Amino acid sequence: MDDIDGLITRVQSRTVCCVKDNDDIDSSHSMIPHGESTYDEKTQSVRSLDIQFSEIERPIIMEESNQRSENIREENVVGISERDSAEVIDKNKLGKFFQRPNKNDYDKLDASPFVSEIFVKHPDEDSDKGDPLGGFLCTGSRSDGTFLHEFCSLQPDGILAKDLSVREKDILVRLNEKNTLGSLEYNHEGILELFRTLPTLKTISMETYNGKSETFTTVEFLLEGTKEEIIVKENSVMLTAQPPLVEALLYQRGNTSLAYQNGQLALCKSANFLTDCTHHFVVKKTLDEGFYNVYTFQVQKNKSKFLGLNGRKLEIIDGTDEAYIKSFQIEKIKRDSFLKPCGKDDMYVYYNKFKGIYEAVSRADALKDEGFGMIIIPTPCQP
Hints:
The chain is mostly beta strands. Helices cover 9% and strands 35% of the residues. The protein has helices spanning 86-91, 103-111, 159-163, 188-196, 363-366; strands at residues 8-12, 75-79, 115-120, 131-141, 147-152, 171-175, 178-179, 204-210, 215-221, 223-225, 230-232, 238-240, 245-251, 256-261, 264-268, 281-287, 293-299, 305-310, 313-318, 328-333, 336-341, 347-352, 357-362, 375-378. The strands form eight sheets. Strands 13, 14, 15, 16, 17 and 24 form a six-stranded antiparallel beta sheet that branches. Strands 7-6-8-9-12 form a five-stranded antiparallel beta sheet, with no helix packed on it. Strands 3-4-5 form a three-stranded antiparallel beta sheet, with helices on both faces.
């Protein structure tokens, strides 16, 4: 069975970026290719979070979010947990994490007696059982008492595989706004009932996770039926990855992060990088033809600009310019995340401390020393 590195659902507080009216940032945020800059607290309108960049290895939720409850919109964000320690999670108040699936979980799924064909029934149908969706649901219980639901024995020409792009051993994360991953409520029969009672001619949303490619996929679709069968309404399927997130890209050795400064890419310090949108990129995740994650990094302050490669150098690129690579895969190695330019699988973007720039080099060169990739931090801000 495919390994799954761990699944998490995090409740993230949302607030508003500190957006200035022009593309420039204060002179206190000077470029730092080789040295350090100063920081004038009087120029900032929000309180310093007093966080050392080198200590950040995980998403942070701002402490002052409780003081701004009127501006907070809670949203379930599904991602991959890099940690499985409940003590660390509780200590840092990162929300609810699900335990990392382990061999015992997979063994339980393989040996589970709870394997049933999935049906859906519509009002005009004569059969009480309903129509098959072209696959089976396998359910296992985990050590924390929650349930893990897996698709199996999919028929290539069935609705699940053919129309909805579900793959063998995909994990069900959410169905029509019902959080099924890590649920104590939705057992095997509960999930089967959710499928059986799916509405017709109303938008249905389903999210799955594939452990092999580490992709979360959301599919929206419409069902319609007659007395003979139920089908997916033509041209109703929309397949997407997760909604975009606003993230900061940190260089841990320099206590700095990438920023959009005077139309250029810079490495700058900001005590408020979580709310200072000059340090923010709208990260959009899509799926390529092989169902692998592909990311673009749109400048938060100027949506026409993106991170891209000019030759080997990482720069700010115009979004309409097709001459530059603007799409990347991400590979996490130890504490570092490396951008891998699409079409150049052997290249990794790392920080060249001698040139003071991020550039694409071979994997061997990028991994000579630890700490020259990036730490990618979700911010509390909206796209």
